[in-house]
Amino acid sequence: MAEKKVMLTQDGYDKLVEKLNYLKSVKRIEVADRLKAAIALGDLSENSEYVDAKNEQGFLEGEIIDLESKIHNSEIIQEDFVGDVISIGSTVVIRDTEFDEDETYTIVGSTEADPDAKKISNESPVGTALIGKRVGDVVQVHAPAGIFHYKVIEIIRD
After folding, report:
1. Phi/psi at 38 (nearest 5 deg)?
2. Separation CA 17–CA 67 (nearest Å)
3. For residues 139 and 95, is the Cβ–Cβ distance under 8 A?
4. What is the pLDDT of residues 9-60, one digit of tens each?
5. What gap in Å lies between CA 113 and CA 31, rounded to an integer?
6. In 3-state terms, what secondary structure has residue 83?
7. CA atoms of 61 and 31, how far apart (whole Å)
8. What is the tens place of the pLDDT at every residue in 98-138?
9. CA-based angle 22:27:28, to the nearest 5?
10. CA dihedral sign of residues 92, 98, 99, 100
């Protein structure tokens, strides 16, 4: 079965590659050193430091495999996809029609989503509703907290 494509902006792709390189070149060495130190303590059956280091190593290797898979299956969103229509990579200003409040979001792939940084996934309720819309369009968003209506105010170009 083919793996799902991971939609990324160039910035998101670069961050994944940077994190992978850090884990492989720095973190692996740190964990290996912890393992060596724990082994030097002797009896491994009752050595909690060894058990912790082995658990960390397993988690680290799983994270490396996950990042390698995401990078391998990534599709970089090209800048020319962004224009008058909202797509992944677009930064948009939307207005909540009920409260007359504006919010600015960047639509990103699910791997890059970070609501605190105003980066929402194209697979989220708001992201899904906005994809393909233009300035002036009003969208209805079905979210766990209810139904919301947003008007697209602006698509920001870098």
Report:
1. -70, -40
2. 8
3. no
4. 888 899 999 999 999 999 999 999 999 998 888 777 778 888 899 999 999 9
5. 29
6. coil
7. 11
8. 889 999 999 988 888 998 999 999 989 999 999 999 999 99
9. 110
10. positive
